Amino acid sequence: xxxxxxxxxFGNTKIFKLFSLGFIFVSLFLPVTVxxxxxxxxxxxxxxxxxxxxFGKFDYNIQMTTFVDGDYKTRSLNHPGYYAVWSPxxxxxxxxxxxxTESHIFSIDVNSPRQKTQLTExxxxxxxxxxxxxxxxxxxxxxxxxxxxxxxxxxxxxxxxRQMEAVTAIPHFGRTFFFYGISWGxxxxxxxxxxxxxxxxxxxxxLDTETQEIEVLTEFNIDIYPVWTPDGExxxxxxxxxxxxxxxxxxVETRVLTxxxxxxxxxxxxxxxxxxxxxxxxxxxxxxxLHDLDAGKTEKLFEVDGGIFGISWWKQEAISLPVEPKxxxxxxxxxxxxxxx
Length: 341
Fold this sequence. Notes:
Blueprint: H1 13-16, E1 43-52, E2 57-68, E3 71-80, E4 82-86, E5 92-99, E6 102-109, E7 116-118, E8 124-131, E9 137-144, E10 153-158, E11 163-166, E12 179-184, E13 190-197, E14 201-208, E15 214-216, E16 223-228, E17 234-239, E18 245-251, E19 257-263, E20 269-273, E21 279-284, E22 287-292, E23 297-303, E24 308-313, H2 333-340
Antiparallel strand pairs: 1-2, 1-24, 2-3, 4-5, 5-6, 6-7, 8-9, 9-10, 10-11, 12-13, 13-14, 14-15, 16-17, 17-18, 18-19, 20-21, 21-22, 22-23
């Protein structure tokens, strides 16, 4: 697969080159066009590829857009970083930032964004940050500065204690395997992730973070960038094809696939769900769109001067999940790898 333009492993030259195309300067004062956004509420956080005057170099600068009464307001949080994710309970934003030759995870309060807190004690190369629905844990993939690149795994950090542990032990067979997206499921107990496997395929897997057992979700395709719905029923992902890429949703219990909309293969793309799981906000390079599942229609929202990297839509409304699903994951990684080698 050649079009992996969403990946942000800045410690790897092969991956970094994929970001060098299509990005342009971003101004600190973004142009505001008045558009009617009656269905949008809350706010989104994302990064924009642009010039950071404080650091005197190009970087991924974190922006925040708030939707108010059918209009929107955008401001810079003045922090270089990427993979920004909202805490579900407070005005806290988590993100990954490159510090010299290492990456670390930080948090800021968007009401006083100048002060930031470093959460990781050990630096490394970290990517695809995701927060659990209960706001207590962060998941990401990567390897520490004390490890080799081949030891790339999924990690879970307890935010309160700041302790992190690897929750996968995926064999690397002597080469590096890249992850292409991580997202938390309901009850903060399961993760969905995309992993490159032998043969040039990226498949979706489900991980039970307590038992560390893994189950295959999709096979024999190139499926990347999964995002779990807040109601826990479906997972959005991008399926690569030779001619055109398509966004799909898959029902976690029934495994029924639903094609949603096609997207430009050559455009950098990120997505996130609304709190009610009925709308999808996504980007193509520097333009934001909203796709309504019920109407089956897509609306252009607004654009910024630069390439968008990552989207996190703050979930203002709590999702009621009174009953834990009865289905248990029984597949171990040993079983999975034996079918994929």
